[in-house]
Every structure is written in structure tokens, then in C-alpha cells.
Amino acid sequence: MIRAFLTRSGLVFLLAATALFCLGPVLWQLVTSLKPEPELTRLPPILPVHPTLTHYAAIFSGHPFFRIILNSFIVAATTTGLSLGIGSLAAFALARLGFGGKRILLGVALAISMFPPISIVSPLYLVIRALGLRDTWWALVVTHTTFALPLTLWILTSFFREVPGELYRAAQLDGCTPLGAFRRVLLPLATPGLAAAAILVFIFSWNEFLFALTFTTTEASRTVPVGIALFPGLHEVPYGELAAASLVVTVPIILLVLFFQRRIVEGLTAGAVKG
Amino acid sequence: MRSERHLGAVLVAPAILVLVGVALLPILLAAGLSLERRLPIFDIAEFVGLANYRFLAFDPRFWVSLRNTVYFTIVSVSLELLLGLAIALLLQRSFRGRGWMRVVVLLPWAIPTVVSARMWEWLYNAEFGLLNYVAALAGLTTQPVNWLGDPFWALHAAIVMDVWKTMPFAAILLLAGLQTIPRDLYQAARVDGANPWQIFRSVTLPLLKPMILVVLLFRTLDAFRVFDAVYVLTGGGPANSTETLSIYTYKVLFQTLQFGYGSALAVVTFAAVALISLLYLKLMGGAYWRRLLG
Amino acid sequence: MRRATRRIAVSLALAAILAGCARSEESSRQTSGPVTVIFKHGKIAGDPALFSSLLRRFEAEHPGIRVRDEILPASTDQQHQFYVISLEGRSSEFDVLSMDVIWVQEFARAGWIRDLSHLLPPHEREEFFSAPIAAVTYEGRAYAVPWYVDAGLLYYRKDLLDRYGFRPPTTWQELVTAAQTILKKENDPGLRGFVWQGKQYEGLICNALEYVWSAGGDVLGEDGRVVLASRQASMALDFMRELIDQQVSPAMVTSADEEATRRLFGEGRAIFLRNWPYAWNLFEREGSPVRGKVGVAQLPSFPGYPPAATLGGWQLGVNRYSRHPKAAEALINFLTSPEIQRWMAVKIGYKPSRKALYRDPELLRAQPFIASLYEIFLLARPRPVSPYYLMLSQVMQPEFSAALVGVKSAEQALSDAERQMSRILFGKGAR
Fold first, then answer.
1. Taking the domain C33-150+312-379, which CATH number applies?
2. What is the DSSP string of chain B?
3. Rounded to an integer, what distance in angstroms lies between the CA atom of residue B52 and that of residue B258?
4. Which of C255, C387, C390 sits opposite B255 (nearest CB)?
5. pLDDT in tens, A104-150
6. Which of B149, B251, B261 is opposite residue C255, by nearest beta carbon?
7. Domain C153-308's class?
8. Choosing among A18, A92, A118, A154, which should be mutated to test the B contact, i.e. which has the most B CBs within 10 A?
9. Which among A94, A271, C102, C359 would be 20 to 30 A from C337, CA to CA?
10. How many angstroms separate the Cα of B271 from the Cα of each of A112, A243, C8, C144?
11. Domain ranges of chain B
12. Which residues pair with B46 in a beta bridge?
């Protein structure tokens, strides 16, 4: 009885500590976003004396922020779709089909992730320009997908491999083609991996800054990180506005994660599959 | 089976196309540049073979940035992995509000780097920062601590920020990995009389190894190449104490416009990361490869 | 479920393709019809509508030319990176660019910007401050037109100085004495003496050179040789270090940039501040704790030497690969003309690069503060005028920072810096 209580309160304590660690700075951003300009540099008090929504109003009035968020969303969603689409097919092949050069492929994919992006942004710029993709969503989708693929490949190959071989072979015996077995058996069982990969790729694309800065010029294709980088003036840094913007742009991601995170958990119903 | 091979080739083709088509050419160009002395400002573009690498070997600033980067990577990644694992284990249990908790845990990763770095810069601000305020209130300090302006503290401040930001990456992948471990294995172990620690060591950890490897690999890659967050936080200072390899590479490429040498630095960064990755894969052993690729 | 997701992805991709194609057509410029000049610059202060109205006015006065301005992030590093990537890739995607004063030499040497000497004939050149003119002149030819200027100056708390009978300091020692006295007498644990920018970035060079120059030292000599490791420079850097050691300046200056120090002073928590003129408007704003209490003066110097201020400011140039150079030059002429510079000064608070405007009655009336900066701008000195400057700066920044935080002695830092800079300039140090 006491042990149950201790583990229960232990759990609550750990959860609270984790929440504080993760949320602490974010809550501070919230507080900062509500403090009027003169109060920003005063401590105490921690909480705003005259809370205000001017910073939130400012980020939408001074900049085409809705458009920027839309751009980011389209780029990130397309990147995620493409990465998962291309990645899952390739991962299936790597995990289940027999052909040579698998290690090399995974190795090359990993190697591409290892190169510091700043050293290839210049040649990439020339490639993008040659393709006529400057200032378009496509430029970002293509580059983001390229750099998200290695992670996707590794995660998904890992997950597909973990699905027991008997299930896959059973599906084939039932008359499924390999792709059919892939669709009916592997995909559903690897849902945690797919969901995790989807979240990570989406967030990567959403927050990617270097390529977004280099390949986009106008609001037609500008994404959130570049939009936020445009807030500060030559010397002035509007901390209030930055704080407000950082929270606003996180909302779509929170919604997305809320949607996907259930799938991370609903992967395997215990026993029914691996039994 | 031939048809399997064909199918396999077809299925990996798009991935290869994207990776090779978009990334390979720029990477090869950059590698090629590292063999040149290329100063566009001065119209200099001459092939010099390995001269850039020879210079690099004796460049004190390179060694300092390498040291900073290695230290940063080791401490950061270890902490991220441990914290991520702890939180993943925590989140695996069922309790009310678990969905929300997962969102909370993901928040640091979700906030754009350019913003979270400024946020931490503000937190660490010696005069206005929350950290110093709380520390003074709690009686831990008598003088404001110069977090970002002290050669010793600055790198550690950057590490804390990075751990905060990237720990969710580890947590989410490890959580997904935990989800694939069938319940009955735990049941069986408990029936055998194992205590939680033994269960963790003999059931959880081995089955989690693939995910741990993915986390280690990609987190090490990222930590070794860290740029934006630290650059916004400290700019590489004070006295180059937080200058990582990527920050140095950035300055060489885009401030001093030495394209050849900058590319050499990038290639060396790549080589270092490749070496570490090979080490990880070696440690995981051949059994892991067989398990991964069949 | 997965199939649905993939369908969505494909449709999104298709939509993106269509949208992308549509946009790239739009953005490719027409060869017939009005000429569109693209003007790239960092964010303009104040209401963007004001600057837009200016560009519309240009269009009205120049039928056949349209102007589209595209904004870059304010961070000078990001702007520089953008220009380097674009210009090295021979981009024609913009015509007029706004450059930091320290980039003009390097862009000119690289052949990335056009010779604009015909826009600045000798009599015209004299209308501008000599320092920015020197900064935009490469091998006798002008490659950019100074748009607006900036220079470091000293802000001080009039009320605090008056209370203890101090006048604005003319020597660094006077500043130290005043600060120490006031700190002791005020006995306020939140008050700091003198704040300035000591973070390892370009701003540190701006600050440090003000001490070095006002001690009679310099970076490059007349003949172009590196003369940084001099006794005077050493004394100057030591002085900066002592400011921190003796707690005249708080330790945080070693990681402080313009905004951190501006906010500290703006909260009433510092007696002296070295910063750029932009901060004045923020101090005099409604609700500012230091409103009406701030005085502005030239920076002090060491005995026997004149004071110095580091030159900042931005210059307008034409992209070498621009397809409409004449139209671009027309825009530059317009933006740097006396009338428009006065308009920008009055309406947006920009500091004109033309000297005569500082005695202009309308400017004196509307922006007396700007008019009062004339003497300070006359003092302004450009950082070493050389295409190698950014390389030199990258050498100096960590060395100066090391001296400030006590990792090296000032003398050691300066001699290390000199050695590396000499190799860059005269040896094969530039790789």
C-alpha cells in the first residue's frame, strides 16, 4: 500500500520535474510575450504587471505572417509526405528484399547526412538556380527531403526489420505480393516508427533555416524561421515579438504531434501479433 | 530471387535518385574545392593538392575548435541519450494526460532553433536573465554569473541549451522503440522473479539497441556539426571557447571567403563524423547488421 | 490510412509543382515593358509604408522604372553570406544592394559591384563625409555611394553626472574617475559604471579600435604594414581589461552586444554607455526610465591624442551582373540625393551621409539630435580599408576577446594578431 503510494508520488514527482525542465523556458517565453516593452528587462517581477497582446498583434500586422506559416506548412507537409513515401518503399526493400549493396546504400545515405550543410549551400544554390527553382516551395521541398531521407531510411528500415519474419512470410503464403504484404502487414505494424519519423521530419523541415534563407527571397516562399529572422531591426531585437512568434509557430506543430503521437503508442496490440 | 532483386532495385531507386541527384554533386564539388586554393575575392583558383590539409594540421584554431566540438558532442549526446531514455521509460507507463505529456516533452524540439537560441541567450543574460535571478534568490550566487562571457561557463551553457533542445529527439525515437517490445516478454520476466532493473537490462535494453544506435548516430552527427544554436548564443566566443568546427568553417567560408580551406574543414568534419559512426557500428557488431538488413 | 496519406502527399506535391511553376514564371522578369529594379537591403527602421512611399515617388519621377525591394534579415552576417553566395554565383536577381561599410573593398576587389565613379565626381564627393568616401573608394575609383552613416559615441547620465559635479569626460581616466565616484556614492547594487560591447564579434573591433586610435595606435600603417602590436595599442587593450577588473564595467560586457548594453543603460542601470546613435530614440521614448536624463558626447581619448569613433553605416552599390545598371544607378542617385536624404532623416531618423544637411534648418528643427552628431561624424574613422579586412577582423576578434577575458595578456594577443595578419597580407596565410 505504502509502496504503491510511493511509486505513485515518485511518478508524479518525475513527471513534474520533466514538465518543468521542458516547459520552463517555454513558459518564460509566454511570460515574455505578454510583457509590454518597458517591463521586458525588469526582474522582479517575474509576471507582467500590465499584460498585453501588442506583441501578438505586431507579428501579424508588420509581416505577412499567415502567408509565411502557410508556406512553412506546405513545405513541411510535402517534405514529410515525400520522405515517408520514398523512404518507406526503400526501407521495405532494405529490410525484406534480397539484393546487393544494402550496406552501401545506408552508408551513403548516412554519409550525406554527415556533411556540414554550410559547406554545400553554395553549390546547392547553383543547382537550385539552374533548375529554375529559386524562390519556390519546390526548392525547399527537394533539399529538405534529401536531408531528411537518411534519417527516415534508418528509422524505417529498423522498424520494418523488427516486424517478425513469420508474419511477412505468412502474408506471402496467403497469396500477397511482396508489396501487398508490405502494405497489409509491415506498414500497420511499424506505425510507431512511421509516426516518429513523420514528426521528426516535419519539425526538421519546419525549422530549417539555412536553405530557407538562401533559396527564398520573397513572401511567396518564405518560411517561418526566415520570417522570424526578419523581426529584428539593424540593432534592435524585439524580444517580446520574438517570444510571441515562437509560440504562435509552435501551435501547428503541437496540433500535429497531438494527432500523431497516439499512433506512436497504438503500434502493437500486445500478444496478438508476436504471439 | 531475381524478381525480388528487381523489385528491390525499383523500390530503392527513388531514394537513390533524390540523394544522389541533389546532394552528391554539391558534396563532390565541395570535396573538390578542398583541393584548391580558392579565393574568389582575389580571383585565385589554383589546384594545390593536399596543401589545405597540411595547413589545417598546423592550424591552432582548427585544433581548438575540434577540441570544443568533441567535448560538446560527448557531453551533449550522453546527456541527451540518458535523459531521453529516462523520459521515454516514464512516458511509456499509462497515466492520465499521457498524450499531453508527450506534447510537452516534444516542445523544445519543436521551437525553431533561431528562436530557442535567443530565448536561452535571454535566460543566460547576466543582468536580466531569469537564471541569475533565480540563482540569486535561492542564495546560490552572490554575484551575477557571466554565463556567456566566461570561457569556462560559455561552452557548458551551450551544452545545456543543446541538451534541452534535442533531448525530445531521443525521447521520441526511444519511446517508439519501446512500444515495439511485446508485453509478454515483460510478463515472462516478472514471472521469473526479475526485479525492474534486471528486466530493464535483460529485456528492454537489448531490444532497444537498434533505436539507441539510430539515436546515437544521428545525434552525434548533429552535435558534431552544431552551428545555428551556438552561433546565435555566443558567436563562438569568448576567446573561441565555444567555437565549434562548423562555426569555424562558417567563418572561413563566409567571412574570410576562403572557399578552398573552408571546404577542407568541412571534409575533415565529415571524416571525423564518419570515423565516429564507423566506431559505433563496429561496437554494435555484425549481428546488428544482419538484424538490420537480413 | 497510409494510402490516404500518400494520396494527400501526391496531391500536395502536384499542387506545389503547379504553384511553383506559376511563380517561377512570375518572377522571371519581362524584357519588354517597364524595367523592374530589385533593391536588396536589410530591414529599414520604422514604418515600412514610409519607405515604400519613397520608392513609389521614385517610380513617379522615373516612368518606365519600377522598383521592388526585397528585405534581408538584419543580421549583417546573414546579409553578407547571402551576397557572397549570390554574387559568387553571378546572380542577376537583384540590381541595387545595400552594403555594410566594411564590405565595399572586398566586393570591389572581387569585381562584384560596378564602378560608380561617374556618380561621384570630385565636387560631389566633397559633399559627403570623407570617412565613408574613403571606405567606398578602391584604387581611386568609387564603387558605392554612401547612403547613411553611423559612428560610435558616448551616452551618459546627465542627472548623475550633475549630481556629483562631473562634466562629460574628455579623457578615459576622467570617465573612470567619474564612474567610480558615482558608483561609490550612489551605493546602488544594481548600478553599473560603463557598459560597452565586448562580445567576440565585429562590434568588439569597433569598440577596441576606438581605444587604440585614441591612444595613437592603429592596425595598418601608411605603407600597409601591420602595426597593431604597438605600445599604444597594448596600453589601450590593457585599459579595456582593467575596466572589467576594477569593476568599472560589469563582467557581462565580454558577452554583450549593442542591445544588451542599450537595455541596461535604458533601464537606468548604467552611468556610461558606448553605442551607436540608434539608441537615442529608444531612450527618449515615452515610458523610458531615462527619458530626459541622457546626454551624448564624443568618446573620450587618452591624453595627447584626439578622440576617435568607429565608422559604421551603409552604402548603395550596383550588382555587376545586373541587367538594368542604368536604372539601378538612377535609383541610387535618387536615394542619395540631398532632398531624399533629408526626407529620410526627418521621417525615419536616418543619418545623412551629406555634410551640408547637418546645417539644414528643416533637419535642425525636426531632428535636432541628428544635427548635433555632425562633429562626431567628422571624427569617424573607417576600419582598415582593405579587401582583406574581413580576414583581418576574424584574426583580431578572438585575440581581443582573449585579452578581455584574461586568457592572454594584451601584449601577447596583439603580437599574435599581428603575426597572423602579416602572414595574410604578405605571406601565403590566406588559403
1. 3.40.190.10
2. -HHHHHHHHHHHHHHHHHIIIIIIHHHHHHHHHTTEEEEGGGTEEEE-TTHHHHHHHT-HHHHHHHHHHHHHHHHHHHHHHHHHHHHHHHHHS--TTHHHHHHHHHHHHHS-HHHHHHHHHHHH-TTT-HHHHHHHHTTS-SS---TTTSHHHHHHHHHHHHHHHHHHHHHHHHHHHHHTS-HHHHHHHHHTT--HHHHIIIIIHHHHHHHHHHHHHHHHHHHHT--HHHHHHHTT-STTTT--HHHHHHIIIIIS--HHHHHHHHHHHHHHHHHHHHHHHHHH-HHHHHHHH-
3. 11
4. C390
5. 888 888 888 888 888 888 888 888 888 888 888 899 999 999 999 99
6. B149
7. alpha beta
8. A118
9. C102
10. 12, 38, 39, 42
11. 1-32, 34-292
12. B37
Nearest Cα residue in chain A from B253? A119
A274 touches chain C (CB under 8 A): no
Q: Chains contacting C with at least 3 CB pairs below 8 Å?
A: A, B
Q: Mark yes or no for CB contact C259/A236 under 8 Å.
A: yes
Chain B, nearest residue to A194 by Cα: B176
| Helix H or strand E segment including A53 | none
Determine the residue type at B90: L
Residue A260's pLDDT is what?
Answer: 73
Q: What is the mean pLDDT of residues A230-246?
A: 84
The topology under which CATH files domain A71-222 is: MetI-like fold (1.10.3720)
Hey, is the C-beta of A105 within 8 angstroms of any chain C C-beta? no
pTM beyond 0.95, yes or no: no
Q: What are phi and psi of C310, to 5 degrees?
A: -80, 135
Chains A, C: CB contacts under 8 A, how many? 117
What are the pLDDT digits (tens) for B82-109?
999 999 988 888 777 887 888 888 889 8
Contacting residues for C75 by C-beta, under 8 A, at least 6 apart? A229, A232
Q: Which residues pair with C99 in a beta bridge?
A: C315
Contact assignment for B180 to A95 by CB distance below 8 Å: no
Mean pLDDT of A30-41: 86
Whether B257 contacts chain C with CB within 8 A? yes
**Contact state of A220 with C27 under an 8 Å Cβ cutoff:** yes
Sheet holding C192-195, edge to edge: C192-195, C270-275, C153-157, C294-297
Instruction: Quote the pLDDT of residue C287.
Output: 84
Residues of chain C with pLDDT under 50: 1, 4-5, 8-9, 16, 18-30
Say whether pLDDT at A163 is over 50: yes
**Coil, strand or helix: which one is A86?**
helix
DSSP string, A209-246: -HHHHHH--STTT--HHHHHHTSS-SS---HHHHHHHH
CATH class of domain segment(s) B34-292: mainly alpha
Position B1 confidence tier, pLDDT thresholds 50, 70, 90: low
Domain with CATH 1.10.3720.10 in chain A: 71-222
Write out pLDDT tens, residues A171-218.
878 877 878 878 877 888 888 888 889 988 999 999 999 999 888 888
Å between C411 CA and nearest CA of chain A: 32
Those residues whose C-beta lies under 8 Å from the C-beta of residue C260, and which sit 6 or more positions away, are: B125, B127, C252
**Phi and psi at residue C250, in whole multiples of 5°?**
-70, 155
Give the length of chain B.
Answer: 294
**pLDDT at site A266:** 52
Domain ranges of chain C: 33-150+312-379, 153-308
What pLDDT was estimated at residue C27?
A: 44
Q: What are A34's three cell numbers?
A: 505578454
In this structure, the strands spanning C192-195 and C270-275 are parallel
pLDDT of residue B214: 86
| pLDDT top residue among A273 and B176 | B176
Rg (CA), chain A: 23
**Residue in C84, C252, C393 nearest the CB of B149:** C252
